[in-house]
Amino acid sequence: MHLYRGSTDQFVADAVRARLAGQLADRFFDEFRYRPSPSEVASWQNSLRAMSDVLQLADLRDQGILVELQLPLTSRRLDCLITGSDPERGDSGVIIELKQWTMIGRSTVTDCVTVAYGARVVDALHPSRQVERYQRYLLDTHPAFTDGGVALDACSYLHNATFDPTSPLFEATFATLTDAYPTFTGDEADRLAAFLDARISGPDDGSILELVANATFRPYKRLLDHVARVIRQEPAFVLLDEQQVAFNAIMDEVRAAAGQNRREVAFVIEGGPGTGKSVIAINLVAELSGLGLRAIHATGSKAFTQNLRQRVGSRASPLFSYFMNLAGVREQFDVVILDEAHRIREVSGNRFTPAAKRTGKAQIDDILDAGRVTVFFIDDHQVVRPEEVGSSGLIRRAAATRGTPVREFQLEAQFRANGSDAFIQWVDNTLEVERTPQILWPTDDAFDFRVVDTVDGLEGLIRRQAMAGATARLVAGFCWPWSDPEPSGDLVTDVVIGEWRKPWNARAQAGRLAKGIPASDYWASDPGGLEQVGCIYTAQGFEFDYVGVILGRDLVYRPGFGWVGQPEESRDRIVSSRNVSRDAFTQYVKAVYRVLLTRGLRGCYVYFVDWQTRDFVLSRLERRATLARAAEAEAPYKS
Q1: pTM of the model
Q2: DSSP state of 415
Q3: 478 phi, psi to nearest 5 deg
Q4: d(CA 539, CA 350)
Q5: Are 139 and 155 in contact (CB under 8 A)?
Q6: Rounded Cα–Cα distance for residues 23 and 29 (Å)
Q7: Mind listing the pLDDT tens digit for each residue in 242-277?
Q8: Spatial distance between the Cα atoms of 5 and 20, rounded to a whole number of angstroms
Q9: 120: helix, coil or strand?
Q10: Helix and strand element counts for the chain (H, E)
């Protein structure tokens, strides 16, 4: 996706006539169904006019240009990419990051500078590091560049700034970086023009632009498939923008805390589904292990931790543990990394904990005691059970009680839903989790969302995607019983809708299972998981190319009342307990479906057991799917 595409000659003409910002704003509305902010429109107006001046200065009139080009499978967009050719390298492209910065200061965070935005001063990646990350990301994910067909360079242009050799931008520590990925200021337009002329002076007849704009991207590099490479110091994921800032800030604090027994700090990294929390966490494990520091990665999910352990191998598996195992550690870790911190419980003990060890101490205090530096990755909207009490507020209060400073970062870029943060916003708005600009969902979006009329059609779509090589799973709300396996090891077909029957994934303590049935912990990663329906407790923390969601009667929509939780329809005894109010139950089950609906990288298909709820969600679609698409969804699956 991009907001502008054309020749450099047309781009200059549109800029000179002050048409660019309006064109981008209209295109933005077409894509996202809400208007960009006035400040963003003003930024386009100023920055793109400055870019137009450079193109005229370099006399680059027959190249191609893309503006606001979305990075593959993320919501992050490049400001500008120009395509042309070079006599020595052939087809070429240059990434240009456009900045309106003027007041730039030194930052205590590695690879960062500080920038003033009105009254706020924030840490931001050095522009040269930012474009280096973008270049590397495209080289990893975009076949136009990964296959070696198009050479790629990158630079940044701070068109409102004046060159100052004493500026933090040009300190000696950044010299190697700026040599490879130059940062140009407004009074260096001639240098930027020469940089571009040396790389893309040859024309693009449209073929290079076409290749870059319309290529089919490489499959997403799933977290679990690459953990082993990350741990072996072969990072398979590139951190972008605020991800890199958070990572660097944590690493800087860890280095400072090393050897200082009393220095403690807590980091709170907040982000919704698909913003890369787990990617940063795994990169931290790899980096810290390489430095020889005592670090541990902990979650509240047995399935997620077991999959990580399986992927990294027996030697690295001790790096991955559980929140409850942090209780009473004898020696502080240098760093404790808490993934999915919203799953923190009130206390670390459970029904299997010996009475002598049941101290009643809060689990959050066990965690803060366990490490000099604690890093919490959290989404406050993913609490799905009463005993899960993790929240950013809880962390702040517990840290304040012990005098531990808290540093907070917010992740926004979207790496799931085909990079569509609009889908996540639409889900939040539709479930009334929070108000967002995304009220209606455009069914022609690149992310494949469909409401399916039959559960057979839902299964058929998921199986087709799996047969095509994608990862795909069926999941459902906890509205059906969950039986132990038969004596033969076969699973009981508990999920029944009309004549359609399917078993849940195996229970955690299922014992012997028949051949081909994965244990509960490996339902998400084992190919046999396609034959069962997953629930929230086996799906949370995982992602698939496509997810099929069965939304049961535990959450329905009623005109005049909105979303209504129906605990009598739930088989989750903890959430539907009499000790849980109906309002609280409604919030928990909303969180459940929010998690299930946002597991997909490329698509999400939904079947509604309740027809009134289905009709409400259909009313939130901008237009219905085409007849051909609907017919495909309805067709029964045939092997």
Answers
A1: 0.84
A2: -
A3: -80, 70
A4: 22
A5: no
A6: 10
A7: 899 999 999 998 888 766 665 689 999 999 888 889
A8: 11
A9: strand
A10: 20, 24
Q: How confident is the model at residue 229 (pLDDT cuts 50, 70, 90)?
A: low
Rounded CA gap, 450 and 408, in Å?
A: 36
Q: According to the model, what pLDDT value does residue 223 have?
A: 46
Give the torsion sign (CA, 308, 310, 315, 317). Answer: positive
Outline where 266-301 has alpha helix (H). 277-290
DSSP state of 71: P
> Which residues is 158 bridged to in the sheet?
99, 185
Residue 205 is encoded by which pair of tokens? 């007849």
CB 466 within 8 A of CB 605: no
Cα–Cα distances in angstroms (integers) from residue 36 to residues 100, 106, 414, 420, 446, in the given order: 18, 31, 18, 16, 20
* Number of residues in the chain: 639
**601 and 417 Cβ atoms separated by less than 8 Å:** yes
Cβ proximity of 78 and 68 under 8 Å: yes
Contact 299, 288 (CB under 8 A): no
**Residue pair 294/267 in contact by the 8 Å Cβ criterion:** no
The backbone torsions φ and ψ at residue 287, rounded to the nearest 5 degrees and listed phi first, read: -65, -45
Query: Residue 291 has which token pair?
Result: 């430095």
User: What pLDDT does residue 577 have?
Assistant: 87
Q: How many CA atoms lie within 13 A of 469 on its CB side?
A: 3
Place of tokens 């092997």: 639
Write the DSSP assignment of 334-399 as a string of letters. Answer: EEEEETTGGG-BSBS--TTS-GGG----BHHHHHHHHEEEEEEEE-GGG--STTB---HHHHHHHH
Q: What angle do CA 451, 453, 459 make, to 5 degrees?
A: 85
Close Cβ partners of 164 (under 8 Å, ≥ 6 residues apart): 170
User: Do 614 and 624 meet the contact criterion of CB atoms below 8 Å apart?
Assistant: no
Are 340 and 304 in contact by the 8 Å Cβ rule? The answer is yes
Query: Given a cut of 90, is residue 112 above it in pLDDT?
Result: yes
Beta-strand relationship, 448-451 and 472-476 = unpaired
549: number of Cβ within 10 Å = 24
* Phi, psi (deg, nearest 5) at residue 373: -120, 125
Q: Which helix (H) or strand (E) holds 545?
A: strand 544-551
79-108 pLDDT, tens digit per residue, is 999 999 988 889 999 999 999 999 899 998
Closest by Cα among 258, 260, 257, 320 to 286: 320
Would you state the pLDDT for residue 299? 93
Here the tokens at position 334 are: 């240098």
**Sign, CA torsion 11/14/15/19:** negative
Sheet with 371-378, strands from edge to edge, namely 320-322, 295-299, 333-338, 371-378, 265-270, 406-410
